[in-house]
Amino acid sequence: MSIKDKVWLITGCSTGFGREIAKSVINSGYKVVVTARNPETLSELKDMNEKNVLVLPLDVTDKNQVKVALEKSVEAFGSIDVLVNNAGIGYFSSVEESLEDETRKMFEINFWGLMNMTNEVLPLMRSQHSGHIINFSSIGGLASFPALGYYHATKYAVEGISESLAQELAPFNIKVSLVEPSGFRTDWAGRSSVKTESQLYADTVGKMIQVAESGSGNEAGNPKKAAEAIITIVESPNPPLRLLLGKMAYQVATHKFTNLLNAIEEWKETTVTADYQ
Questions:
Q1: What 3-state DSSP class applies to 35?
Q2: What is the pLDDT of residues 90-147, one digit of tens each?
Q3: pLDDT (tens digit, 9 = 90+) per residue, 230-261?
Q4: What are the angstrom distances between the C-alpha of 63 and each of 53, 67, 113, 184, 238?
Q5: What is 3-248's CATH number, 3.40.1360.10, 3.40.718.10, 3.40.50.720, 3.10.350.10?
Q6: Does the annotation count 155 as an active-site position?
Q7: Is 236 labeled as catalytic in the residue annotation?
Q8: What family is this (predicted)?
Q9: Which residue out of 30, 91, 151, 201 is catalytically annotated?
């Protein structure tokens, strides 16, 4: 198969990363299935290449819609070679003050929605003995900050299951990659994320929400370059399990893991003596 013969399916294409990835994939000459809960928002993408673009309605929390979307994708293009699990939402609040309805909704989309898509596509990819699953995590899947506790929990869950999947799927020639962006200009921290103002944690949660809102639209990350980076790893013969995106992502990750390794070594004696001697 030529690289450009690969068929992509991308979730959450109405805005943000999903839309930019879709544009870049279409411009690169791939066949692509673009999806959103409201497919009317995707007409611009369809107009880019009528022949190579299929627009479908898709709510990743609706298993029936997921099943139908995959069936229609295969009917139109014959396969699904790259699944981009991009659909997701954010939620800002302290852990203590978070609203259960909002946190459960976020888990349904960020984690269970991602798994609905993944589990539905796996039989096809196994039968093809090929495929690449791109799971959107975040630098918040590696390191945590105040005001985003439950959001971090969804992304840590995506990280953990993706590591297992990568090992389970290796014999089937199916790749798994986690995408871990820092701040990008996708409006994620602005109007796109629900916020419950903190009455108890003004110095931590309150300040974090203020910083996020004031910086929205001025983040360092360029979504178009992120999309190009994702195409690069899909076209690579040896794609990474983790792709950090953005200078801040690099800085946060290296800071966390340097400190983690130092702490592991500091407590090594206590750690290793816990075994039967």
A1: strand
A2: 999 999 999 999 999 999 999 999 999 999 999 999 999 999 999 999 999 999 999 9
A3: 999 999 999 999 999 999 999 999 999 999 99
A4: 23, 6, 8, 30, 32
A5: 3.40.50.720
A6: yes
A7: no
A8: Belongs to the short-chain dehydrogenases/reductases (SDR) family.
A9: 151
